[in-house]
Amino acid sequence: MMGRQGVVSMAGLLVLFALASTRTTMATDYTVGDSMGWTGPPNITEGFYNDWAAGKTFEGGDSLKFVWNGSHNVAIVSKEDYENCTKVSSYFIGGSAFTYTLPSNASGMYYFICTVDSHCEGGQKLAINVTSSEPSTTDDGSSAPLLAIGALSSAVLPAGVLLLHLLN
Ligand SMILES: *[C@@H]1O[C@H](CO)[C@@H](O)[C@H](O)[C@H]1NC(C)=O
Ligand SMILES: *[C@@H]1O[C@H](CO)[C@@H](O)[C@H](O)[C@H]1NC(C)=O
Ligand SMILES: *[C@@H]1O[C@H](CO)[C@@H](O)[C@H](O)[C@H]1NC(C)=O
Ligand SMILES: *[C@@H]1O[C@H](CO)[C@@H](O)[C@H](O)[C@H]1NC(C)=O
Ligand SMILES: *[C@@H]1O[C@H](CO)[C@@H](O)[C@H](O)[C@H]1NC(C)=O
Ligand SMILES: [Cu+2]
């Protein structure tokens, strides 16, 4: 016969599985600028990439794929460097694509610019607001298994809550 400890740790495992699958199914791969790719004037105007980002939700684990033709790069910069279009010395170049995966614990603003010529000034810059991907704040149906497990028994709930804290 399974003791209470067994029940609790099994429930913990189920929570872990639910959590893992929730995270996996929720990660979104974005192509920055969609078919326009990562480009500068004259193809785009100021604000183009922030218009692209508007209405999208970015979470830890999501990836941003920058694709381009011609001479461009991707620098991940601070707010000040984003605003000033600072020609920072560290950036990604080579090939014509770069994929950045947001850290799983990412939250807050992330800034990307191209430091070639005056592309940044012309609008080749992107600012995104990353919301943390805590399972309790998921807005689609994928967190349903978690809720179902929580409802199984009130004894199970504290174990699940504890695990969630450990994972955060
Ligand atoms: C790059 O050029 C190729 C060939 O003209 C085109 O098919 C592709 O869409 C372009 N990609 C971007 C990101 O502009
Ligand atoms: C961007 O503009 C250049 C020059 O006008 C053009 O050659 C290139 O194909 C354009 N790229 C895109 C993605 O529209
Ligand atoms: C940004 O540019 C402004 C105006 O040129 C300057 O005063 C400020 O120091 C710059 N900030 C950084 C972090 O470079
Ligand atoms: C994410 O975690 C890493 C190490 O686990 C830490 O260095 C980093 O500061 C964290 N980032 C945020 C935004 O909390
Ligand atoms: C980012 O989004 C969070 C949550 O919606 C909000 O509280 C915060 O003010 C936003 N940050 C910026 C710089 O807009
Ligand atoms: Cu550029």
From TrEMBL:
Annotated signal peptide: 1-27
Pfam families membership: Cu_bind_like
Segments passing through the bilayer: 146-167
Segments forming domain Phytocyanin: 28-132
Q: Name one GO cellular component term.
A: plasma membrane
The highest taxon in the source lineage is Eukaryota
Molecular function per GO: electron transfer activity
Instruction: Enumerate the UniProt keywords alphabetically.
Output: Disulfide bond, Glycoprotein, Membrane, Signal, Transmembrane, Transmembrane helix
Q: Extract the Gene3D superfamilies matched here.
A: Cupredoxins - blue copper proteins
PANTHER family associated with the record: BLUE COPPER PROTEIN, PHYTOCYANIN DOMAIN-CONTAINING PROTEIN
**Protein name according to UniProt:** Phytocyanin domain-containing protein
Organism annotation: Punica granatum (Pomegranate)
